[in-house]
Amino acid sequence: MNQILVTYYSLEGNTKLVAEVIADAIDADILRLVPVKDVNPEKGSRYFWGGKQVLMRQKPELEPFHVDPREYQVHFIGTPVWAWRYAPALRTFFHEIDLKGKKIAIFSTHDGGPGKTLAKMKEKLDGNTIIGEIEFYKPLENMDSICRDAITWASSILDGARNP
Ligand SMILES: Cc1cc2nc3c(=O)[nH]c(=O)nc-3n(C[C@H](O)[C@H](O)[C@H](O)COP(=O)(O)O)c2cc1C
Predict the structure, then answer these.
(1) Model confidence over 56-98: pLDDT tens digits?
(2) Which residue puts its alpha carbon closest to atom 5 of ligand 1?
(3) What are phi and psi of 80, to 5 degrees?
(4) Is the CB of 46 under 6 A from ligand 1?
(5) What's the alpha-carbon Rg for the chain, to the nearest Å?
(6) Cα 31 to Cα 99, 145, 160, distances in angstroms
(7) E strand or H helix at 161, and its extent?
(8) Cβ atoms of 50 and 87 closer than 8 Å
(9) Angle 68-152-114 (CA atoms, 0-180°, nearest 5)?
(10) Is the pTM of this model over 0.85?
(11) Which of ligand 1's atoms lies nearest the C-alpha of 112?
C-alpha cells in the first residue's frame, strides 16, 4: 500500500484538478469524497443550497470509501471554499475519520474569498502535524501556473515529511 493519500471533494472540477496533479506528482493514492446527494453544479442556486449546508453545519452522507484513510501516515486534504469555509463533505469526513498523529498538508481552491477555510481545517485536524498549507485561485482558469505551483508545493512538502 502507498504511504500517502490525497483526499478531496470537488463540485466543479477545480479541486479535482489540483488533487489529481498532486497525486500524480508524488505517486499518492487518491480518495474523492462523493456525497450520495449533492447540489446541482449546473444551477445558479448551488451557491444558496451549498452555502446553506455550510451554515447549518450539515454532514452529507458520502459514498463508501475504497481505502481506509487511517492506514496512511501522510495526507493531503483539499476542498473548495464554500461560504468562506471548507465544503460540507469535508465535515462528514472529519466526523467519520478521526485522524491522529498523522502528517497532513491542506489545500483549498477558491474564487478570491478564501475566508477561514484552512484555519478551520486545522482546528478539525488537531492532534496531527500540519506539514503544509496552500490556497489556489481559480485553478481551471489558470491551469498551467496552478499545476506548476501544485507540483512544486507537494514535492517540497514530501521532501520535508520524509527528511524532517
Ligand atoms: C456553494 C458555494 C459557495 C462558494 N463560496 C465561496 C467563497 O466563500 N469564497 C470563494 O472565493 N469562492 C467560493 N465559491 C467558489 C469555489 O470555492 C471555487 O469556484 C472553487 O474553486 C470550486 O472548486 P471545485 O471546482 O472543486 O468545486 C463557492 C462555490 C460554491 C458552489
Answers:
(1) 999 999 999 999 999 999 999 999 999 999 999 999 999 999 9
(2) 82
(3) -75, 155
(4) yes
(5) 15
(6) 15, 24, 23
(7) helix 143-162
(8) yes
(9) 75
(10) yes
(11) 11
In this predicted model, what pLDDT tens digit does every residue of 94-127 receive, in sequence order? 999 999 999 999 999 999 999 999 999 999 999 9
Does the C-beta of 7 come closer than 6 Å to ligand 1? no
Q: What is the CATH T-level fold of the domain 4-162, as seen in this structure?
A: Rossmann fold (3.40.50)
3-class SS of residue 29? strand
Domain map (residue ranges) of the chain: 4-162
User: In angstroms, what is the span from residue 88 Cα to ligand 1's centroid?
Assistant: 12
What is the C-alpha separation between 115 and 97, in angstroms, rounded? 24
C-alpha distances in Å from residue 4, one per residue of 47, 105, 124: 32, 11, 20
CB atoms within 10 A of CB 57: 9
Would you state the cell numbers that stand for residue 15, as one nine-digit string? 479541486
Q: Number of helices (H) and strands (E), helices first, in the chain?
A: 5, 6
Q: How far apart are CA 114 and CA 137, in angstroms?
A: 9
